[in-house]
Amino acid sequence: MRRTEGSRRVKIVVVGSIAIDSIKSPYGSADSIPGGSATYFSIAASHLCNEIGVVAAVGTDFPYTDLFHARGIDTSGMEIIEGKTFRWGGRYEEDNPNLAITEYTSLNVFQGFRPNLPNPYRDAEYLFLANIDPSLQKDVLAQMKMPKIVGLDTMDFWIERKRDELFELFDMVDMIFLNEEEAKRITGEKSTIKALRAIEGNRAIVVKRGEYGSITSFKGTIFCLPAYPVEMAVDPTGAGDSFAGGVIGYIASIGGGMEGIRESEMKRAVAYGTIMASFCIESFGPKRLMEISREDIKRRLEEFEDMISLGRNP
Amino acid sequence: MRRTEGSRRVKIVVVGSIAIDSIKSPYGSADSIPGGSATYFSIAASHLCNEIGVVAAVGTDFPYTDLFHARGIDTSGMEIIEGKTFRWGGRYEEDNPNLAITEYTSLNVFQGFRPNLPNPYRDAEYLFLANIDPSLQKDVLAQMKMPKIVGLDTMDFWIERKRDELFELFDMVDMIFLNEEEAKRITGEKSTIKALRAIEGNRAIVVKRGEYGSITSFKGTIFCLPAYPVEMAVDPTGAGDSFAGGVIGYIASIGGGMEGIRESEMKRAVAYGTIMASFCIESFGPKRLMEISREDIKRRLEEFEDMISLGRNP
Predict the structure, then answer these.
(1) Which positions in chain B touch A229 (Cβ < 8 Å)?
(2) B267 vs A309: CB contact, 8 Å cut-off?
(3) pTM of this prediction?
């Protein structure tokens, strides 16, 4: 095991997967493209905050490290392990862009991955625990000195297999990102609002609804925002992680901890998440997310704000 | 056949069903309560416009005419036919409040209903063709002199059985209200945005997404608004018609035809629809819709506006 060189202090640390994906959708297909939760999260967040470090494992065959560098992302937490990179193959049907149908998963070097944070990362103010084994998420959290805000994502696989550990983690983090189905399954509630009420506690819970946007519980208030309407969901892979990258990237850009965040700031953060997810799905892989400029983001955020503004009361 | 007395000029005419419903939901049940598309539409719209006339058929057993009068709704277009009122029984499961499961339908006097508009109704500026047989909808439209705006609702039943007639009607109206599934089925498109693009033409198409809000195509622009988050969808019956009542009621309150409506006004109309639907589902039948005050509506609209406002850009 070795690391890419030159560890530096960062503001946001993300731990998650880096993968090589092969994807089919009604709009075409793409083979062996960059993927993984840490990839999407960090690229999205890099548009809002330029001090991001990635903790993940790749194989010696991984050809996309330059992608991270092109976005100014620190890869000294990326472990290069002898062997092959995690590979995922999946497809989407037109009638349900929210549902990824897995065709194969080869964990490869990801299998035995035990995250070990470079020393300068341990001082980071913001931490995002992307969807991996809750035991590893806990491990990473324990290595951090005193993060101001910790975000967490998970998936049904862990909800079924490591429920207790997941609940323990819930109490240790500040922002939980869940799909609607996951929120319902975790709580046993059939209504999303009830599910939110059941787990909200002193945290922000952001429930992702795919093409229907999101519903968030924040300091006792529940708010819904629609998705930005995209004509073609070319490849929905990574939308959730790009969403989280937008949220936490924006929060990091304004600074401070949970106490300091106002509701309007949280809403704006979710709006950034919404916009990042909308760019993400416009191309296969993180291609579109890599291309967009500050101007593109500003313009789409304004369009979104305009779309949900009811205009002046006559 | 006879009519209730005293026909007067009205601003909005709605033609649809008036029914006696029996409903079960995870929150309880209610027997023999007022229902039907014309009922929900007119009560919702009556909060925004006080000149509404209802065209529908009821049996001699219908005990709820006072409900309409209590909201200032003209019932001279309501035909009282010897026999029993249309009855519908249905239920909702907690995991899908958008789906009404029909337990029985007894058309009764609704079966042979041929709408015949009182003369003063024929001058109305706004017409809403609630979900009934497209042949009857066309019939009613032909009786109108020169309505400024015509709204239309339909359901999968007619999409399957009277597709051509429905498409003909589409070209004769200004606002089409559809459920998401219906919009997809009509166009054969699997994506809602594509479905909107396929039928938008020179009309407003409002696609109702239940707990996920709405997506609207208006003068070439597509906008999404979320639903107002309601903790308990006690009885979703009538939500779609209350929604349309809010939209058309607001449009009638500002006056004018399609050309004059600005995008911000259309959005505000959809917001009123959203709010009316949210009140509708908070009780069995139109009970809550009957109770609400101008102040309740104003407050909830402000809350909704606040919910989707991202606050000042820092």
Answers:
(1) 193, 215, 222-224
(2) yes
(3) 0.93
What are the residue ranges in chain B where pLDDT is below 50? 1, 314
**ipTM of predicted assembly, 2 dp:** 0.89
Structural domain boundaries enclosing A241: 2-307
DSSP 3-state of B132: coil
Report residue A39 as tokens. 């990839």
B29: how many CB neighbours lie within 10 A of its CB? Answer: 11
Residue A313 is assigned to a structural domain of this protein: no
Q: Distance between CA A134 and CA B107 in Å, rounded? A: 56
Residue B223: inside a domain: no
A164 Cβ neighbours under 8 A, 6+ residues apart: none
Strand order in the sheet with A28-35: A28-35, A19-25, A87-91, A101-106
The count of other CB atoms within 10 Å of the CB of residue B155 is 15
CATH number at residue A100: 3.40.1190.20
Looking at the structure of chain B, the number of domains it has is 1
Query: Does residue B177 lie within any of the structural domains?
Result: no
Instruction: Taking residues A171-180, report their average pLDDT.
Output: 96
Residues of B in contact with A265 (CB under 8 A): 311, 314
Output the six-digit token pair for A110: 């990801």
pLDDT at B95: 81
Asked whether residue B121 is assigned to any structural domain, the reply reads: yes
- Best mutation target, A309, A310, A312, to test chain B (most B CBs within 10 A): A310
